[in-house]
Amino acid sequence: MALLGASRGGTFEGLKWLRQFGAVERVFLPGVRKEHFQAELNLRRLANGFLRLRIEPHLDNANNHLNGLRSAIDSDSVDAEFQHTRLGKVETWHRLLNDLLPMIKQVAAE
After folding, report:
1. Which phi and psi angles does 25 have, rounded to 5°?
2. Domain check: are 81 and 100 in the same one?
3. Which of 21, 45, 63, 105 has the fewest CB atoms inside 10 Å of its own CB, making it the most exposed?
4. Is residue 2 part of a domain?
5. pTM of the model
């Protein structure tokens, strides 16, 4: 906190995020009341934390967003064909990522 010149609140929020991400873990030091943390150096654990926090939630919500985009296309619009084409490309990428994510997680876990 002192080295970065960060506030207590900012430090707390940063540590909270790092713990959720799996980048740090709490370490118990006998006889010491203050919390101490140790950095996670295992790249696989960090990758799994990143996938869990940053990728999976977006893929889970993507179906709702894609449905919203699909329903927002006005079939009578001059751009309707273009919009359907673009939406199809996004849906293809979404399916690909959904298919690849379990494999990426498995590789990261090994």
Report:
1. -135, 150
2. yes
3. 63
4. no
5. 0.58
